[in-house]
Amino acid sequence: MIGAAARVRLAQKARLQHDRLTGKQFLLYPERGLELSESAARIVALCGEERTITAIVDELAAASGEPRERIETEVISFLEALDDRGLLVVT
Amino acid sequence: MKTPRPYTLVAELTYRCPMACGYCSNPLDLARHAAELETADWIRVFAEAAGLGVLQANLTGGEPLVRGDLGELVAAAHAQQLYVNLITSGIPADGGRLAELVAAGLDSIQLSVQDVDPHGAAWIAGRDDLEAKLEVAEVARALGLPLTLNVVIHRGNIARVADFVALAEKIGAERLELANTQYLGWALANRDALLPARAEIERARTIAATAAERLRGRIEILFVRPDYYADRPRACMDGWARRYIVVTPDGIVLPCHQATSIAGLAFENVRGRALQEIWNESPAMKRFRGEDWMPAPCRTCDERDADFGGCRCQAFALVGDAGATDPACALSPRHELVRDARLRAEQPAPAAPPAIRLRRMRTTA
Question: How many CB atoms lie under 10 A from the CB of residue A35?
């Protein structure tokens, strides 16, 4: 489980890449790539600077105006999926 | 059908290799591909691949380190924003060279180890380089380079899967591929010596699964039950000419490493035509793309979206017809070809390891 106070950044092997064919963002890592939805890409972009989950959720909530609780659930479940793949450094 | 988008370019930069692994995925007729593409050819291939939508470049061989221009090639692939993965035996080992490649934009390295037992390594690869490989791993980690450890699994080393997990932990690998031998080419020639018995596969699978759970989030561990024991074919290359483009050292464009083994298909060369045109229009690339080619029982099978009809090279090698159902599938009318090999693997192993046919093509071209 990743807690709200945890700081997260992308693991070195993961690279965010703009796709010239579709304009979408991909998260690339050895032998694999994940095509990110717009909201997933926003979360990953915020993982660039070792923010806390709370700070990431605050930014997304401020930008979207959506309920904070819902965003937090979404963010944590997405980041846990990345962490399972070893794509995240959690401290 | 709409032409699919390839995501990965497998660039076989050379078939020269200091190793002689008896399961090598290179073709048997290595010498026919000795006229290697020039640096400029590969630079063009990377650009054309990126134009097609490719996001990953696997630089492989043979042994890519024997190419003197590897640094330039990494830089060229990186310039196309490709995720550049070096697939290497680590030999010839040279830490300074690795630093140069990282500076050029190398994103990750996949290092192969043949065995942790020196006799086992010598049996399967003709030599033992474990110490040198461990030094390469150390340099990679010191450079911050993400490291995958790859071990091809066969009858001679399957008892040491737990040791390979321990090795991955020791060297700080982020991913461990316990890659069961695929019985094509060199490995098919050596099949009776390499194919493990069912109980050995299941024991290894349990060890791998337990380790994967223990190391979740730290080391990704891959162990896929080999198709000979799966009763269903593997989704070879995720489908023919669908996600992967392979380019051989001499420029031939293929849907998979082994495809030149299929008689009667005329694969085209990047020396004569742009990669985009070959991918989109070449009859050989279209031959088994999609589902129209499928025979019964594949054509109405519920699993055809999952396995894409299996491996065309295996169908050709075993049945003699690349358009046949992969005989690894229990629904294939020729499944006995695989079942018979499995039955032979149940025989007790000989006291001394049998001689195998080593893949020979030394670094001097």
Answer: 14
Q: How far is CA B269 from CA A81, B28, B41, B355, in A?
A: 41, 19, 11, 36
Contact B155, B345 (CB under 8 A): yes
Q: The pTM is what?
A: 0.95
Amino acid at position B213, single letter: E
| Local confidence band at B363 (pLDDT 50, 70, 90 cut-offs) | very low
Structure tokens at A48: 């660039």
Q: How far does CA B237 lie from the centroid of its chain?
A: 10
Q: How far is B291 from chain A (nearest CA, A)?
A: 25
How confident is the model over B243-259, as pLDDT tens digits?
999 999 999 999 999 99
- Which residues in chain A touch residue B81, judged by CB atoms under 8 angstroms apart? 17, 20
CB contact under 8 A, A26 and B55: yes
The token duo for B348 is: 């007790």
H-type helices in B108-190, by residue range? 118-125, 130-142, 161-171, 185-189
DSSP 3-state percent helix, strand, coil across chain B (nearest 5): 40, 15, 45
Q: Which residue of A has its CA nearest to B212?
A: A84
